[in-house]
């Protein structure tokens, strides 16, 4: 028989269930659990633990009291670094012998919502065709959260905080996918849409972060070219082939410089022999009418009408198929050789339009000059067409300069070009003329750093959804040398403050910890997106104020912050003025009181010299009236009781411990008392001395 050993039963007290403890626990040290073994009496067991967090990295987080078996947490835990710790617990006797088999001690770190969700990008960009149908998805803005994915701390919800009028885009709250919400995308109305996105955990009720989505609307061919007027009247010399007669101006709302914008001109009627040709200027999109072949003298009837038509190089989409192509009338007046005289050859030399392409920077400084040259005998020049009044032409030298150092308004630019027409006259008889097109390319340079607007504001001292200060910036430059702007605080401020992007031109400042109320001057680095970028460090004055209901500043603090940092100069002057006024009033009052006292003393002294009685009755003097005369009559009447009988308030009774107060009673008690000493008290007491003496 082989003796089979039964499985050893582990005592219930020595089996330790998993222990849960929250991350970021503040009360350190914190008792987690107490383990014990019933192998020995209390005090006869030595406990110990080993493993990560005890004697392995990160060491020192947990410890155990070797006699009581109490396990303590000694440091703050971060679930995002370690979500659980697996330790071994040991029980030994006082001699070091094992009392229990080592048991597992598992400590689970419970997640807290201590991580904001983060977008994968600060700025998302996408493109969509104008006229896109609702439901056309543009991009997906994804975000991550470092908290536990199994809890609500990492359940994200996406939303659009701001997108401008129209509400053309919508975002899927769960996936972050952005799609068109309704029809109406029109590049000619809004070419770029800036969306401010937000993602928040706790299903949208927790911590939040913002990002920007920039959606560019791409052009489609949905606008026909339009002539700027219905009829032109031009003159053409006879027997001059290859001469440009004039220009037909058209306007197309599609993207300048694109195939959708470029027009093609066709002569529909009025020129059966093909004497004229019309071509498209690739830079201005104008139609240039020229003489295609030489015709006999006066071959072109005076006042013959030619009808050109402008059409698109690319066909219109179906949605714009009904849009008309524009047509106009051109009156070409033939000028005979007899009229031109010997100047006809010169006219042939100067009739072609001259194109000059200077690159202009809009930065302040010396004006840009362009020299126009027509022919040796040219005498004067004039501007035929200067839409913005931006140019100045020397009529004799042909020098063109800008009247202002700034660039012309964008409304007068065509694809970044400023177009003007110049007329040249010679001094012949009759004079001949020619027109030329002056095309100036406006090249934007990044010569301005962004400026913080406004440079100060109030902020609630306690962190929360309402404790935010919206920061903005402006830049005198134009795209692409302006927005998006980048806001950055110094690294030494990152512990107490955070700056998050709100949109391409704004950011949000928020406190990370509760701050004492007061004025804070924060150095802020502001940078644009130009090439190369320009940046400027500015001071942001933040008035941190006590928080009211809902996390807003209290009224007094809000008023003080609106007045600026510190006490405003006007308020300070008002306070100082009030203090000075109070001081003057106090001095005047003191001086008046002092004067009154002096006058009173002088009056008392003067009266005391005249009548001693007035000095005695100073506190209740009525003047020398009836009351005074009744007192004299009483004093002179021997039958009237003594004056002090009026001062008897109550009868004390016989046998009183205190002696009687009345002089009458006193006289009854002691008839031999001498009252002559009363005469020494003054004239007022002489009568008493006579009565009782």
TrEMBL record:
It is a single-pass type I membrane protein. Cadherins are calcium-dependent cell adhesion proteins. They preferentially interact with themselves in a homophilic manner in connecting cells; cadherins may thus contribute to the sorting of heterogeneous cell types. M-cadherin is part of the myogenic program and may provide a trigger for terminal muscle differentiation. The chain crosses the membrane at residues 567-591. One of its GO terms (molecular function) is beta-catenin binding. This is Cadherin-15. It is found in: Cell membrane. GO terms for cellular component: adherens junction; catenin complex; cell surface. Residues 13-119, 120-227, 381-452 form the Cadherin domain. Pfam families: CADH_Y-type_LIR (PF01049), Cadherin (PF00028). Gene3D superfamilies: Cadherins, TCF3-CBD (Catenin binding domain). Residues 617-637 are annotated as: Disordered.
């Amino acid at each position: 028989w082989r003796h089979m050993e039964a499985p050893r039963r582990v005592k219930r007290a020595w089996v330790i269930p998993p222990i849960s403890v929250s991350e970021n626990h503040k009360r350190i040290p914190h008792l987690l659990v107490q383990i014990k073994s019933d192998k020995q009496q209390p005090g006869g067991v030595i406990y110990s633990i080993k493993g990560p967090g005890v004697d392995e990295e990160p060491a020192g987080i947990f410890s155990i009291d070797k006699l009581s078996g109490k396990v303590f947490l000694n440091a703050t835990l971060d679930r995002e670094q370690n979500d659980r710790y697996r330790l071994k617990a040991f029980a030994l006797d006082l001699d070091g012998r094992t009392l229990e088999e080592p048991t597992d001690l598992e400590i689970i770190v419970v997640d807290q919502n201590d991580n904001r969700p983060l977008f994968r990008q600060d700025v998302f960009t996408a493109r969509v065709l104008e006229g896109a149908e609702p439901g056309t998805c543009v991009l997906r803005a994804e975000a991550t959260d470092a908290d536990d994915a199994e809890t609500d701390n990492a359940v994200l919800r996406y939303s659009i905080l701001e997108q401008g009028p129209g509400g053309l885009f919508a975002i899927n709250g769960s996936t972050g996918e952005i799609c068109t919400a309704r029809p109406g995308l029109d590049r000619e109305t809004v070419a770029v849409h800036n969306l401010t996105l937000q993602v928040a955990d706790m299903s949208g009720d927790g911590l939040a972060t913002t990002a920007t989505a920039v959606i560019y609307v791409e052009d489609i061919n949905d606008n026909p070219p339009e002539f700027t007027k219905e009829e032109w009247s031009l003159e053409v010399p006879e027997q001059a082939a290859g001469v440009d007669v004039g220009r037909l101006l058209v306007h197309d709302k599609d993207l300048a410089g694109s195939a959708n914008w470029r027009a093609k001109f066709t002569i529909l009627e009025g020129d059966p022999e093909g004497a004229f040709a019309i071509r498209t200027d690739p830079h201005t999109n104008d139609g240039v009418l020229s003489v295609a072949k030489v015709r006999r003298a006066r071959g072109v009837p005076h006042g013959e009408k030619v009808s050109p038509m402008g059409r698109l190089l690319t066909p219109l989409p179906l949605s714009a198929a009904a849009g008309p192509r524009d047509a106009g009338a051109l009156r070409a007046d033939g000028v005979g050789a007899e009229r031109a005289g010997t100047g006809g050859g010169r006219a042939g030399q100067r009739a072609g339009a001259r194109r000059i392409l200077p690159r202009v920077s809009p930065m302040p400084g010396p004006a840009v000059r362009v020299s126009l040259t027509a022919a040796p005998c040219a005498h004067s020049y004039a501007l035929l067409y200067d839409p913005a009044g931006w140019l100045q032409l020397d009529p004799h030298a042909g020098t063109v300069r800008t009247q202002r150092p700034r660039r012309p308004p964008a409304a007068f630019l065509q694809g970044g070009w400023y177009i003007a027409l110049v007329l040249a006259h010679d001094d012949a008889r009759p004079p001949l003329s020619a027109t030329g097109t002056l095309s100036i390319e406006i090249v934007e340079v990044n010569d301005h750093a962004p400026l913080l607007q406004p440079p100060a504001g109030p902020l609630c001292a306690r962190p929360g959804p309402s404790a935010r200060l919206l920061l903005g910036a402006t830049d005198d430059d134009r795209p692409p040398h302006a927005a998006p702007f980048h806001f950055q605080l110094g690294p030494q401020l990152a512990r107490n403050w955070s700056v998050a992007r709100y949109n391409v031109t704004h950011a949000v400042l928020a406190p990370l910890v509760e701050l004492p109320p007061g004025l804070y001057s924060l150095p802020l680095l502001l940078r644009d997106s130009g090439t190369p970028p320009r940046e400027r460090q500015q001071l942001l004055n933040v008035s941190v104020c006590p928080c009211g209901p809902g996390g807003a500043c209290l009224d007094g603090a809000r008023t003080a912050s609106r007045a600026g940092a510190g006490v405003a100069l006007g308020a300070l002057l008002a306070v100082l003025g009030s203090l000075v006024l109070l001081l003057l009033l106090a001095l005047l009052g003191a001086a008046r009181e002092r004067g009154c006292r002096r006058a009173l003393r002088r009056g008392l002294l003067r009266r005391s010299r005249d009548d001693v009685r007035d000095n005695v009755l100073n506190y209740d003097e009525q003047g020398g009236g009836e009351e005074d005369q009744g007192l004299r009559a009483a004093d002179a009447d021997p039958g009237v009781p003594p004056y002090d009988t009026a001062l008897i308030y109550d009868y004390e009774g016989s046998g009183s411990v205190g002696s009687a107060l009345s002089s009458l009673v006193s006289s009854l008690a002691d008839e031999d008392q001498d009252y002559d000493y009363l005469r020494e008290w003054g004239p007022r007491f002489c009568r008493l001395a006579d009565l009782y003496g």
